[in-house]
What we know:
Elements: E1 5-10, E2 15-22, E3 26-34, H1 36-40, H2 47-69, E4 78-84, H3 88-105, E5 109-113, H4 114-120, E6 132-137, E7 142-147, E8 153-158, H5 164-174, H6 182-191, H7 213-228, H8 235-260, E9 266-269, H9 276-289, E10 293-294, H10 298-301, H11 306-317
Parallel strand pairs: 1-4, 4-5, 6-9, 9-10
Antiparallel strand pairs: 1-2, 2-3, 6-7, 7-8
Helix pairs in contact: 2-3, 4-11, 5-7, 6-8, 7-8, 8-9
The structure holds 5'-O-[(R)-(carboxyoxy)(hydroxy)phosphoryl]adenosine and zinc ion (ZN).
Amino acid sequence: DKPIYILAIETSCDETSVAIVRDGHAVLSNMISSQIDVHRRFGGVVPEIASRKHVETITVMIEQAVEEAGISLDDVSAIAVTQGPGLVGALLVGIVAAKSLAMALNIPLIGTHHIAGHIYANQLTAKIEYPCMALVVSGGHTELVHIESEGQFKLIGRTRDDAVGEAYDKVARAANLPYPGGPHIDKLACEADEVVAMPRSWLEADSYDFSFSGLKSAVLNVVNQSKMKGNEPNYPAIARGFQESVIDVLVGKAMRAVKEYDAKQLLLCGGVAANKGLRAELTARCEAEGVPLLVPPMEYCTDNAAMIGAAGYLKWKQQDFSSLDFNAHPSFSL
Length: 334
Ligand code: KG4
Ligand code: ZN
């Protein structure tokens, strides 16, 4: 059979990324241009700046991705692009580029869900077996997704307030650490030799939803109380307490979901999958319970276009294409 080359575009937040993926799993190129340095001084992503930066970068990224893959544009079988969720202005830049390419090359266009991308990042390096459970943890998402068979998603739990990465970033900010703060808090937590106990937000006994805003407030209270007493807050011990609470709840709910849904595998994905404590605890629990744990390499955990190529390929197989007038979907559900 003829190889299928998908040119994939991801611009949902602050990374401009273009990839060429062959047959849904072989990454021939995965160009990523991060805007973090531009947004850092604002302490978070500024949507308008994100859109402008994508406009400046996207054309060059497309050229580079094709060149690095060693193919020509005429070899491309279809264009996959993130349709949502994400920042609407940022999404639109990728979508307009994708539509233009699809029209010029006269090939199919595939609107792709960003979370399906994070989940199918696992397909780039491993074989997914169904039914499985995915724990998606990033700056924008905290979701438990049951996948009955290929491409059949059921969202069983989600955050009711902050995403877990967002909570990390806010706690880091309170500790005067630079954006994005997740890795800094992770490091502090791992080095701490004391721990400040923090609450766990389990919500209703049968719920797979998450909530991190109460925990975030608890952290801010401890920090402010120390400062009011004229003391320097014990940031490592606070970070440790925060991280333990996050991990307890994420791992507890994920393992309960794996059991209840008889999942053959647990898939961990999204930027927070880089967290050392979370990886260690999930690895240990999955080993103890005999459940294979899949975690993509880091370059496929944070936002990237290769994962969109992997998810887009599922739609290619179904010949499930988008029309040229499809729109961005900032709060797209799975
Ligand atoms: O997936 P991602 O690159 O972008 C989104 O789609 O949001 O995730 C970025 C998020 C940020 O909030 C960042 O602080 C968090 O992932 N993060 C971490 C770690 N590394 C990145 N959070 C906790 N521990 C880490 N080691
Ligand atoms: Zn993401």
